[in-house]
């Protein structure tokens, strides 16, 4: 079993980042790989370096992506694109949400993220200085998106079953008009169940193929965070991605889930809800009623 050890040999270690940066210069690497090598050369403890990086990636990109949405919420100009335009989250609501999300990150997710390196070491994830090609990153991330979406659809749908909803999922539905920060506002059990859809696919893929680099996992996690925050943003623009990629879910899709509560269970794509006839909203409901009536007529 390959372990995440000695990404950079000890002779390149440095006591400061700049010293490590200078030392790994001798390896003559492209910029990204040199930054990567510096990080590992500085820590000289690959588990700590990976765990800390995953945690930082999560915090920086989650809150970094939430910030523009918080600003948009206070600028009246953008109100025209707000999906539920009468429901602007108050600053107080947003700060309360932020405090809960931060608490969850530090108490529930930090230990899980820390164990990620250990799990990946067991399954042969590579953290080497040899990065995969752009094409490899793209197809692997695309595959993780498809698998996560399926996982999310079924588990989220199950979480809407009475007892599970009351015990677990109700917390996430506190906001019927969501906003970016609310993406990870959920019970710790829900974070674990749905979070498995994000970390599970890379682990299984790695176990089967032994062909996965940690940088691909970072790209995947960042894009998945963007998807989750944007889906909760509450804004639908003429340039939103689903206008160009009709199967992309986006904010419109998930906002309706929060608004109407039933339907639109998938995360990234629209196909599961379309095929299994679980689209949300009054129009989808009327269509379903109409089709059921037609079917009943035929049977008579
Ligand atoms: Zn739900
Ligand atoms: Zn949601």
Automatic annotation (TrEMBL):
GO terms (BP aspect): ergosterol biosynthetic process
GO molecular function, one term: C-4 methylsterol oxidase activity
Keyword Heme: no
Keywords: Membrane, Transmembrane, Transmembrane helix
One cellular component term from this protein's GO annotations in UniProt: plasma membrane
Cellular location(s): Membrane
UniProt key word Transmembrane: yes
Domain Fatty acid hydroxylase stretches: 142-278
Pfam families: FA_hydroxylase (PF04116)
PANTHER family: STEROL DESATURASE (PTHR11863)
Identification of the protein by name: Fatty acid hydroxylase domain-containing protein
